[in-house]
Amino acid sequence: MPDVIAPNLAVLFCGINPGLWSGATGRHFARPGNRFWPALYASGFTPRRYAPGEQESLVTFGLGITNVVARATASADELTRDEYQAGYVTLAAKVRRYTPVWLAVVGVVAYRFAFGRPKAVVGKQDETIGTTRIWVLPNPSGLNAHWTPAALAGEFARLRREAVGARRGPRA
């Protein structure tokens, strides 16, 4: 699945890995029950609710999307610790190359496994990759019932408040 990425983004969102639906369509967070796109809009990152087929439009707002692991699966539970660790190496190289101001890892469990931070919680992290700061967001999957749509949008909004005006350099 191709990344939606450009140099100097304000926020590069990083999913765990594509689900089978996303893998089949080539669109990030494409499953109809996924709450990523509604949360992006409700938090103020975008002026309207975008659909997965419009993902390339995010770059105009200083936003991008990638994944920790590229392999599509029915569930992230199918990923191995080795895949997470290899994914981190690839992700870190990508972040150093494109230098987003923020990397927003969408899923605390993915962050814990890939970054080797077993006690991490949602929110701003102390570590960086180069000059890129890291924020961990809840997983927007419809299966993540611990986070209501409003609470999920609220967490996205916390990041947005930090990221406003954060884009580096000229528009891509």
TrEMBL record:
Q: What is this protein called?
A: G/U mismatch-specific DNA glycosylase
What keywords appear on the UniProt entry? DNA damage, DNA repair, Glycosidase, Hydrolase
Which EC number(s) are documented for this chain?
A: 3.2.2.28
Which species? Pendulispora albinea
Pfam families the record matches: UDG (PF03167)
Q: Which NCBIfam families match?
A: PRK10201.1 (NF007570)
- Matching Gene3D superfamilies: Uracil-DNA glycosylase-like domain (3.40.470.10)
Residue ranges of every copy of the Uracil-DNA glycosylase-like domain listed in the record: 2-165
Tell me a Gene Ontology molecular-function term this record carries: hydrolase activity, acting on glycosyl bonds
Q: What InterPro entries does the database record attribute to this sequence?
A: MUG/TDG (IPR015637), Uracil-DNA_glycosylase-like (IPR005122), Uracil-DNA_glycosylase-like_sf (IPR036895)
